[in-house]
Amino acid sequence: MRYTAEVVISLKPVVNDPQGLTVRAGLRQLGFSEVSEVRVGKHISMEVDGDSESSVRQRVADMCEKLLRNPVIEDYRIEIRADGA
Amino acid sequence: MRFGIAVFPGTWSDGDCARAVEVLGHESVRLWHRERDLQGSDCVILPGGFAYGDHLRTGAVARFAPLMEAVQEFAAAGGLVLGICNGFQILCEAHLLPGALTRNASLEFRCETTWLRVETVDTPFTRDCERGGVLAIPVSHGEGRFVADPSTLDRLEAERRVAFRYVAPDGSAVGEASPNGSMRDIAGIVSEGRNVLGMMPHPERAAEPLLGSGDGMGIFRSVVEAVAERSTFAAVP
Fold first, then answer.
1. Of B17, B43, B85, B92, which residue is the catalytic one?
2. B124, B133 in Cβ contact below 8 A?
3. Is residue B167 within 8 Å of B116, Cβ to Cβ?
4. Domains of chain A, with CATH numbers?
5. Facing A73 at nearest CB: one of B102, B106, B181
6. d(CA B192, CA A42)
7. With pLDDT > 90 as the criterion, what percentage of chain A qualifies?
8. Among candidates A63, A53, A44, which has minimal Cα distance to A6?
9. Residue B152: which of B95, B111, B104 has the closest Cα?
10. What is the ipTM for the molecules in this complex?
11. Quick one: which of B94, B139, B148, B195 could link to B99 by a disulfide (CB 3.0–4.6 Å)?
12. Please, are residues A1 and A49 in contact by the beta-carbon 8 Å criterion?
């Protein structure tokens, strides 16, 4: 069975995010004054083969722990959906 | 003595490091990232560049190179490892040093001379420097903002593991002139065993007066002395 895994990597709340601050300033300059907080992260999309959503989720979590995120500065969240579903 | 200089795809400062070693009258060998043999190196340098393109995060992929397994073992046995710029980023990703190096606060790539205050001479990399002395050494990076949680920072300070701090040319606090916004203005740190140094500035680019500064040579000279003495580098209690 093939699944699509979406991983969102974000800087931990305590880590200063100069990119987010710059984007916020840019948005405000364009008149989007309602924007209060902007954080810039990464989005990684993968096609993954597996037996079940839970086993794929576990494997993708392992990938995050080993390579995709730096535990010192980043958090992650995972979304899994079966392809064709 | 022999310096081993790591070369990953994207490393660009290996030639400058080899030149600094040559100026000192010592030998260097290149260590290709796919190899595990350190070729009898007394000190391994992880030079600057963009190893594996620095994709995902700086140093994130390089840390899994076969060469890095050998470097991990070498460091665990007390071998001297000097990570410069991208090398510092790789050492943090490999957990040989704590913390992480993130996008410069300015979001700019900074290539300029910085002034570093030597915070401790109790390391094999700074023993030939003067404590509190100021070194003119250039940086060249976009992601050099050192971050770590407050308890890690406190521990680094308490154990006198901050080797260099960015300062103004007169040695006073750098303030807004920090090249990257590093926490506590940290430019370089050593490992618990004091045998691994990571620093963002490039001492090999301050290796001869012709380059504008010879201040980086104190670091290479220190390593040569330390190896010559075969000192043991006990952690500070």
1. B85
2. no
3. yes
4. 2-82 (3.30.1280.10)
5. B102
6. 32
7. 94
8. A44
9. B95
10. 0.84
11. B148
12. yes
